[in-house]
Inverse folding.
């Protein structure tokens, strides 16, 4: 989204998302399907065998049986939610396993409908709780094997 925002001359990716939100519902489903296909291929390349018919758990929610690899969201985040740093943020309390969320870690973020890969930039203690800043990562999910193996 950052690249698209820059190419359109928008100040922030959040502005781009707001301006084009009317086209996103179909794109979210398409992105989730594409992401699932990349995960399935990564599982097969790592010798996972036939993964058809597995029930996936994403963010603690059972997803429908499909021909996909099993994956789990490490931390839920609204990828349109940027703070004054310009980074996507969420609370550490939204993490599946808090010990995984450390600066420099590559993690699976988002929601069951729209998972993505991100780098944990930092953790900041605030009165409302610990804020996790995330930098969304480019490329195919299969490039991030460590995070996908969890």
């Amino acid at each position: 989204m950052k690249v698209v925002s820059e190419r359109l001359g928008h100040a922030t990716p959040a502005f781009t998302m707001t301006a084009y939100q009317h086209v996103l519902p179909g794109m979210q489903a398409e992105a989730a399907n594409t992401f699932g296909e990349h995960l399935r291929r990564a599982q097969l390349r790592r010798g996972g065998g036939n993964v058809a018919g597995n029930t996936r758990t994403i963010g603690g929610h059972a997803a429908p049986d499909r021909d996909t690899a099993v994956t789990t969201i490490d931390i839920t985040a609204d990828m349109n939610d940027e703070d004054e740093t310009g980074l996507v943020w969420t609370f550490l309390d939204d993490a599946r396993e808090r010990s995984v969320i450390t600066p420099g870690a590559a993690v699976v973020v988002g929601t069951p409908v729209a998972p993505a890969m991100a780098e944990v930039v930092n953790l900041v203690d605030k009165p409302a709780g610990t804020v996790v800043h995330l930098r969304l990562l480019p490329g195919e999910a299969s490039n991030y094997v460590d995070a996908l193996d969890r």
In short: The chain has a mean pLDDT of 74. The radius of gyration is 16 Å.
